[in-house]
């Protein structure tokens, strides 16, 4: 079974959270010690709780016990601890610079939507906290420092947003490359396996296996370039007739079509219409026009039966159609 974009994103976020919990646990332990030595007991208690919580979460991840709420809980405590510490330390302590990590972590852990909303909300909240809890009496100096903080925050926010958008776009392209046939841009065998398992729980499915009759002779007589043109044109015609999300090229001149929720009567009508359309459609290129036919074998999906079994049954009925003279569909043996 292949891996979807959602799967790869989830794996990335789990790795980030695992690394983040370890870093926070170590940092919080050191800060707890420093605050205890200075008798800042409230801060020491908060940092100790954060350290212990992140240690527990890291241990759960090590054991493979991940839950979605772990990310939200760790991020909430991280934001809370940094906000409290920054308000106590003030602008000149350097502690507010940790607030600049918020957009990065929000985008990495939760994606664009949460990243945009929370980064904006936290910027407003943190600026107010820093402004009203500063120990600097010079208002101009406070405003100057806050302006630089806000600008730095926005720069990091924009970079985080751009990275997430680029990552999602590249991920989508990679998933598309993995699930699409390079020549025809129909789905491939890997996509068929994934989609079949998804559809099986929701709809009645029929599997139709299509094969171009005498395709080897087309390649031998006219060349592989013409053969590729025929495959490309046929795939476009089938996708236009059936639907893009139901057509799969599984090798050579063989295509699979998944029919969801069709009665046998409507299935026969659709397949015979498709076969008739292909038979009377010219294929080829600008200098050559040829006619082709297809043979089709159909298998009705039964509950719990694996895809391989249905492909085998459809393949048997396909070759039954070939033996009967080609250019026909076989629904039952």
Describe this structure in words.
This protein is an alpha+beta fold. It has two domains: 5-179, no CATH class; 189-330, 2-Layer Sandwich (Alpha-Beta Plaits), CATH 3.30.70.270. Helix content is 66%, strand content 10%. It has eleven helices and seven strands. The strands form two sheets. Strands 2-3-1-6-7 form a five-stranded mixed beta sheet, with helices on both faces. Helix 1 (5-37) runs parallel beside helix 3 (68-89), helix 4 (102-110) runs parallel beside helix 6 (139-179) and helix 8 crosses helix 9 (224-242). The longest helix is centred in the middle third of the chain and has 41 residues, at 139-179.
Q: What is the element layout, followed by pairings?
A:
Blueprint: H1 5-37, H2 41-62, H3 68-89, H4 102-110, H5 112-132, H6 139-179, H7 189-200, E1 205-212, H8 215-222, H9 224-242, E2 247-251, E3 254-260, H10 264-279, E4 283-284, E5 289-290, E6 294-300, H11 307-323, E7 329-330
Parallel strand pairs: 6-7
Antiparallel strand pairs: 1-3, 1-6, 2-3, 4-5
């Amino acid at each position: 079974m292949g891996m979807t974009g959602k799967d790869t994103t989830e794996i990335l976020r789990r790795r980030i959270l695992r690394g983040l919990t370890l870093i926070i646990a170590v940092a919080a332990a050191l800060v707890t010690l420093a605050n205890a030595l200075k008798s800042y007991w409230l801060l020491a208690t908060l940092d100790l709780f954060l350290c212990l919580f992140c240690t527990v979460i890291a241990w759960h991840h090590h054991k493979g016990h991940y839950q979605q709420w772990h990310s939200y809980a760790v991020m909430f405590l991280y934001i809370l601890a940094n906000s409290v510490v920054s308000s106590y330390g003030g602008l000149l302590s350097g502690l507010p610079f940790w607030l600049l990590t918020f957009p990065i972590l929000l985008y990495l852990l939760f994606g664009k939507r949460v990243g945009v909303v929370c980064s904006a909300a936290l910027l407003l909240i943190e600026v107010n906290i820093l402004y009203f809890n500063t120990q600097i009496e010079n208002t101009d100096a406070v405003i100057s420092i806050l302006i630089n903080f806000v600008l730095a925050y926005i720069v990091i926010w924009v970079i985080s947003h751009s990275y997430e958008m680029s990552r999602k776009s590249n991920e989508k392209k990679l998933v598309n490359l993995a699930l699409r046939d390079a020549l025809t841009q129909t789905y491939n065998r890997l996509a068929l396996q994934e989609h079949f398992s998804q559809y099986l729980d929701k709809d009645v499915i029929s599997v139709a296996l299509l094969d171009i009759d005498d395709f080897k002779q087309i390649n031998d007589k006219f060349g592989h370039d013409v053969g590729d043109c025929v495959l490309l044109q046929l795939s476009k015609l089938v996708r236009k007739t059936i639907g893009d999300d139901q057509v799969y090229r599984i090798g050579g001149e063989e295509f699979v079509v998944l029919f969801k929720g069709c009665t046998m009567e409507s299935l026969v009508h659709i397949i015979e219409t498709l076969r008739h359309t292909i038979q009377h459609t010219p294929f080829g290129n600008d200098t050559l026009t040829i006619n082709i036919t297809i043979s089709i074998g159909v298998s009705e999906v039964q509950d719990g039966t694996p895809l391989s079994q249905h492909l085998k049954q459809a393949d048997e009925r396909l070759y039954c159609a070939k033996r009967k003279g080609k250019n026909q569909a076989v629904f039952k043996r």
